[in-house]
Design a protein that fits this description.
heterodimer, A: alpha/beta, Luciferase, domain 3, Rossmann fold, 2 domains, six-stranded mixed beta sheet, 10 helices, 15 strands, 30% helix, 23% strand, B: alpha/beta, Aldehyde Dehydrogenase, Chain A, domain 1, Aldehyde Dehydrogenase, Chain A, domain 2, seven-stranded mixed beta sheet, 15 helices, 19 strands, LuxE (chain A)
C-alpha cells in the first residue's frame, strides 16, 4: 500500500481523473484490507456483506460504513495504548456522538493534509488569525469536540492568534481592534463555524457596522448550514451581509466531518466544494447504492486516504449532495466539485409503537 | 363546573378538541353486543362504504368491513354462551400516534363490550380520523343515535398536558393504552381509581414459522399470493407493527432449507418493488444491517438491492427478541421441528407466530404443553395485522365487561 508520506508530496489539486482513480483504488483497497485485519467489527461487516477486496476493480466498488456506526460502536484498528486522542462530533445534549480514535500517525497525517489543502487558499506563509469562537471550546485536550478540533487544526496556519469571543460568547470588539492594529497591513485569517459567525459575530457587528475593516482578510468557515437554514439565511446572503458589515469578501466554506478530519472539501472562488487528491465523494442512489450521474441528487459517500487507526476511510454520510463535474471547474483545480444539499429528510414511520410522541 | 366521582370536571376545556361527542360522557352500561350498538355500527359501516372521501383509504374500508352487520353477528355468536355480561362503565382509550385507524377499532371494542368511551387520538390530526368522526357526526343527527353522542367522545389534546390525562383517567373504569412501553410509562403517571383496571399494549415481538417443504410444493400462483401476504404483514407497516415478523424460522431437512429460502425470498424481493423506500429509511436500514453484522454470528447475508436484506444466522443470540429488522430486513435460521423452534421463543414479549405450512393447532398446543410465557396469537401469513376481538392475548369483550354472577 502506498504510504501517506508519498501522497503528501503531490499537489493537492493536481491529479487528473485517471491518475487519481489509480491512486485511490490502490490506497483504499490497501486500507480496506488493513482494517479488515485489525478491526474485528469491521471485518465482520465485510464478511457479512460478502466483499472480496481482491476482486475490486475500482474504489467505487469498495464498501462503506454508515456514519451512525461511529456513534454506536467503538471502531478502531489500533491497540488502546496507541490511541493518542479521541475526537467526538458536536452532538447536542443527549444525542449520541461519534467517537474517533487517533494514533500519532493518523493524527499527524490529518494535520499535514489540512495544511496542504488550506495553504492552496491562504498561501504558504502563516497569517495572523482571528478565531470566531470562545477559548473555552478547546480547554479539555483529552476529548476533542469537532469545534475544538477544527480550531486547533486550523491554528497551525496562525502566526498570531486572537479569540474573538469571550467565555460568555460575547464579542470582544476591543481585543479584535487591538489585534488588527497590531497587524496593520497584513493579510488576516478568520476561522469559525458558520452559525457562530452569524450569531455572535455578524449580528454584533450589525449593531456597529464598519467598526472593523476586514477587506484584507480571508474567512474559512464550516459546520454546515442547518441552523442558518432555520433562520432562512442562504449562503449568498451570508456572504453579502458579512461583506456589508466589515468589507470581508474572500470567504470559503468547507465541508468536512470529524469522522474524516483533515481531508476537508474547500469551496473555491466559483462557489464549488472540491475534492482534493486526499479525498473523494461519490453520490449514491439509495435504492441500490448505484452511482449517481453528474447533476443527479444522491447521498454522499466520503472517502479519505488518511485513516489508519480507525476504519473510516469510506463512509456513507446522511447528507445529500450533487456532483457538478470533475476536473473542469473554471477555478482550474482538478478533482470532483460538488454541492451539499443538507441532511436526508425525515420520513413518517408507520407501526404500533409511538416513537415520535404526539 | 360539575362534580363527578369527586373530580372537578371542566365542562368546556379549551385545551381539548372534541372530534365528536359529549363534553361530559355519561356512562350507561349495556349488555355486550347490545342491539342498539350493533345497529349503530352496522349503519356506520354503510355510511363509510358510501363515503367518497373514505374510498381512497383501504384502512377505512377494512374497518368498515369489520363492523358490517354480518361480521358483528358472527362476533356475537362467539359469545353466545356468555349470559349476563355488561359494560364496566367508561373506557378511556389512548390511541397510538402512528396507526391512524387504530382508534376506531379500540372504540368499537369499548362499544361492543357495553361501555361509554373517551378516545384520545393523536394530535397529528389524521385524515382517516376526521373522515370517520365526520361520518359519526352525520349519523348522530338522527334521534335514534343520539345516545352515541351522550356516551362517547373522541378527543385530541397536547400529550404534555398531564392534567387532562389525570382528569380522564379519574373518570374511567378501564384504561386502554396502545402505543408501546414508552406511552404506557407516560400514561401510568396518571392515577386510576381503585376499582379501575387497565389493558396495555406493550412493545411486542413476532416471528414467522415456515415449513420448507410446503414452500417447495407450492405452485407459482400460490407463491405470488404468499409473497403478497407476507408483504402486507411486514412492509405495509414499515415492519414496525408489534405483530410484524422479524425472524423467519424454517422447519425442514437437508437441501430443502436452502432451496425453499431462495424461492421464498426471490418472490418477496419482487413483491417488495412496490415498497417506497425513502432515502432516510434506506440509510437507517443499512446502518441496522451493519450493526447486526458487527454483533451477530452470521452465516450469510442476501441483499436484493436495498429493498430486502436477509441475514442468515449461525447461532441465535441469548435474547432473540432483540433481532428486530426494519423496512424489510429479516433474520432466518433453520430448525429441526416446532418444539426445537419454540424453545428459543419463550419470552413474555413474544406475541404473534405467523405460520406457513405448519398446523395452527399444533403450535397452540405446544405453547401450553411447553408452559410458555409468550405467543398470544398464531395466524397464517397475511393475517398478522388483522385485528380481532382476541388481541395481544386479551379477550377484549371479557376484559372490558363484567359478569353478573
Amino acid at each position: 500500500m502506498i504510504d501517506m508520506s508519498e501522497i503528501l508530496q503531490l499537489s493537492p489539486y493536481g491529479l487528473p481523473k485517471e491518475e487519481k482513480q489509480k491512486l485511490f483504488t490502490e490506497r483504499l483497497c490497501g486500507l480496506t484490507t488493513y482494517h479488515k485485519e485489525h478491526c474485528a467489527a469491521y471485518g465482520n461487516v465485510l464478511d457479512g456483506l460478502q466483499i472480496d477486496v481482491d476482486k475490486v476493480q475500482t474504489y467505487e466498488e469498495l464498501p462503506f460504513l454508515p456514519v451512525q456506526l461511529f456513534k454506536t460502536h467503538a471502531l478502531k484498528s489500533v491497540d488502546d495504548e496507541e490511541v493518542f486522542k479521541t475526537m467526538t462530533s458536536s452532538g447536542t445534549t443527549g444525542q449520541a456522538v461519534s467517537k474517533i480514535y487517533l494514533d500519532r500517525k493518523t493524527s499527524a497525517n490529518q494535520q499535514k493534509v489540512l495544511v496542504k489543502i488550506v495553504s492552496e487558499f491562504t498561501g504558504k506563509s502563516r497569517l495572523p488569525m482571528l478565531i470566531i469562537d470562545s477559548p473555552s471550546v478547546v480547554k479539555d485536550r483529552k476529548m476533542f469536540s469537532a469545534r475544538g478540533a477544527g480550531i486547533l487544526g486550523f491554528s497551525i496556519f496562525a502566526s498570531d492568534r486572537q479569540y474573538v469571543l469571550n467565555d460568555d460568547m460575547q464579542l470582544d470588539l476591543e481585543a479584535v481592534q487591538k489585534f488588527l492594529q497590531k497587524h496593520n497591513g497584513e493579510k488576516i485569517l478568520l476561522f469559525g463555524f458558520t452559525f457562530m459567525i452569524w450569531q455572535h459575530f455578524y449580528k454584533e457587528l450589525l449593531k456597529n457596522p464598519n467598526c472593523i475593516d476586514l477587506r484584507n482578510a480571508i474567512l474559512i468557515h464550516g459546520g454546515g448550514w442547518k441552523k442558518l437554514a432555520n433562520e432562512a439565511v442562504s449562503p449568498e446572503e451570508f456572504r453579502e451581509r458579512l461583506k456589508s458589515v466589515c468589507g470581508l469578501s474572500d470567504i470559503h466554506d468547507y465541508y468536512g466531518m470529524v469522522e474524516q478530519t483533515g481531508s476537508i472539501y474547500m469551496q473555491c472562488e466559483c462557489g464549488h466544494l472540491h475534492t482534493s487528491i486526499f479525498s473523494d465523494v461519490i453520490m449514491r442512489r439509495m435504492k441500490d447504492f448505484s452511482v449517481c450521474d453528474i447533476g443527479e441528487k444522491g447521498v454522499i459517500q466520503v472517502l479519505s486516504l488518511i485513516p489508519e487507526s480507525y476504519p473510516g476511510h469510506s463512509i456513507l454520510t446522511e447528507d445529500e449532495g450533487v456532483l457538478l463535474g470533475e476536473d473542469d471547474c473554471p477555478c482550474g483545480r482538478k478533482g470532483k466539485y460538488f454541492e451539499v444539499l443538507g441532511r436526508i429528510k425525515n420520513a413518517e414511520v408507520r407501526g404500533c409503537s409511538d416513537t415520535y410522541g404526539q | 363546573m360539575q362534580k363527578s366521582g369527586g373530580a372537578v370536571i371542566p365542562m368546556d376545556n379549551k385545551d381539548i378538541v372534541y372530534l365528536f361527542g359529549a363534553r361530559q360522557v355519561q356512562p350507561a352500561p349495556r349488555e355486550i353486543f347490545d342491539e342498539e350498538v350493533c345497529d349503530f355500527l352496522g349503519k356506520l359501516s354503510e355510511e363509510l362504504r358510501a363515503d367518497v372521501r373514505a374510498k381512497q383509504y383501504t384502512d377505512i374500508l377494512t374497518f368498515a368491513f369489520f363492523i358490517r352487520r354480518a361480521n358483528l353477528k358472527l362476533m356475537k355468536e362467539r359469545y353466545a354462551d356468555a349470559a349476563y355480561m355488561i359494560g364496566k362503565g367508561t373506557v378511556f382509550h389512548i390511541a397510538p400516534s402512528n396507526v391512524p385507524i387504530n382508534f376506531a377499532y379500540s372504540w368499537v371494542f369499548g362499544l361492543l363490550s357495553g361501555n361509554a368511551n373517551i378516545v384520545r387520538v393523536s394530535m397529528k390530526d389524521f385524515i382517516q380520523v376526521r373522515i370517520i368522526c365526520d361520518a359519526v357526526d352525520r349519523l348522530i343527527l338522527d334521534e335514534q343515535y343520539r345516545w352515541v353522542e351522550q356516551e362517547n367522545a373522541v378527543v385530541m389534546y397536547d400529550h404534555a398536558k398531564k392534567e387532562l390525562t389525570d382528569l380522564f383517567s379519574a373518570q374511567c373504569q378501564v384504561r386502554l393504552i396502545w402505543g408501546g412501553d414508552h406511552t404506557i410509562e407516560m400514561i401510568r403517571q396518571s392515577k386510576l381509581p381503585p376499582r379501575s383496571t387497565e389493558i396495555t399494549f406493550a412493545d411486542r415481538y413476532s416471528f414467522a414459522l415456515m415449513d420448507a417443504k410446503a414452500v417447495l410444493d407450492s405452485s407459482e400462483q400460490e407463491m405470488s399470493r404468499l409473497a403478497a401476504n407476507f408483504y402486507n404483514d411486514t412492509y405495509l407497516m414499515d415492519q414496525n407493527a408489534c405483530s410484524t415478523p422479524h425472524m423467519i424460522c424454517w422447519i425442514g431437512e437437508g437441501e430443502q432449507y436452502r432451496k425453499a429460502q431462495k424461492r421464498f425470498w426471490e418472490h418477496i424481493s419482487k413483491e417488495a418493488e412496490r415498497y417506497t423506500l425513502e432515502d432516510i429509511k434506506a440509510s437507517e436500514k443499512f446502518t441496522t444491517l451493519c450493526s447486526y453484522l458487527m454483533e451477530l454470528d452470521t452465516k450469510q447475508t442476501d441483499r436484493y438491492q436495498n429493498l430486502l436484506y436477509v441475514i442468515s444466522l449461525n447461532k441465535l443470540p441469548e435474547n432473540i427478541t432483540k433481532l428486530r429488522g426494519k423496512y424489510g430486513l429479516f433474520f432466518q435460521k433453520e430448525f429441526q421441528n416446532v418444539q426445537d423452534t419454540l424453545v428459543h421463543l419463550n419470552d413474555t414479549r413474544v406475541q404473534t407466530c405467523v405460520i406457513y405450512g405448519v398446523d395452527e393447532k399444533e403450535i397452540k398446543k405446544e405453547v401450553i404443553h411447553m408452559h410458555m410465557l409468550g405467543i398470544d396469537r398464531v395466524v397464517p401469513i397475511g393475517k398478522s395485522l388483522d385485528i380481532d376481538l382476541n388481541w395481544d392475548g386479551y379477550d377484549m369483550i371479557r376484559g372490558l365487561s363484567r359478569k353478573i354472577g
